[in-house]
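SAMPLE LOG
Freezer: B-3
Tube label: C17
Construct: single chain, 285 aa
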Amino acid sequence: MGNLFCCVQVDQSTVAIKETFGKFDDVLQPGCHCLPWFLGSQLAGHLSLRVQQLDVRCETKTKDNVFVNVVASIQYRALANQASDAFYKLSNTKGQIQAYVFDVIRATVPRLDLDDVFEQKNDIAKAVEDELEKAMSTYGYEIVQTLIVDIEPDEHVKRAMNEINAAARLRVAATEKAEAEKILQIKRAEGEAESKYLAGLGIARQRQAIVDGLRDSVLGFSENVPGTTAKDVMDMVLVTQYFDTMREIGAASKASTVFIPHGPGAVRDVASQIREGLLQASSVS
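STRUCTURE (predicted):
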């Protein structure tokens, strides 16, 4: 109906290409325009100025001979001041962009190892964007943003990478576990050494106390009972300790200590053995 009245409407974020007798005449901005068809004017087509997105999947090989699929997302738009170039110079905009993306990715990724591809994906995106910006600007298009949204190695390669990562983590865990066990053993040995040291101090103090007590007993008994010798006092102390020990054994319900021989006459033999041992030690020293 608009053509009958020589009027045409151009929507927002869109421009129209006006031709006169088949030749480019003007770029019509959004709004209502008069298009006298009887004077040879006609509408060649519309061109969107909105940002468009094109996802390109490119298969290539890395420097370490691993095939990967690199997915690049290209965001682009036509320039209003170059609408005629964008409309006339390219017949297949998406195909042209895809060809440039393939060219840049297949020239960049083969120079990198697989790990470097993941680490330097921003550099790859920047290389693609620079090449596209230089090429597409002559056709009236602006590259808004280029993103490398995915890098997909072969499934077997991904499984191998996961296994390598898992093995490395297991190795670290085993090292940490061994280190923890080492620390526990060291702490346990230090505790045992400290315990034995303190037990030795206790035994030494106990024996010192026994010796001091016996000495005081011998001296006191010799002073209070005239005519007694140190030998008589020691014999009496040994007999007393013997009967104290026998009483404790009898009082215990589950005693497992056995004295052989256990007769009272054996006390004198024990005292004789102690004296002989002391005399031998004195003669050696």
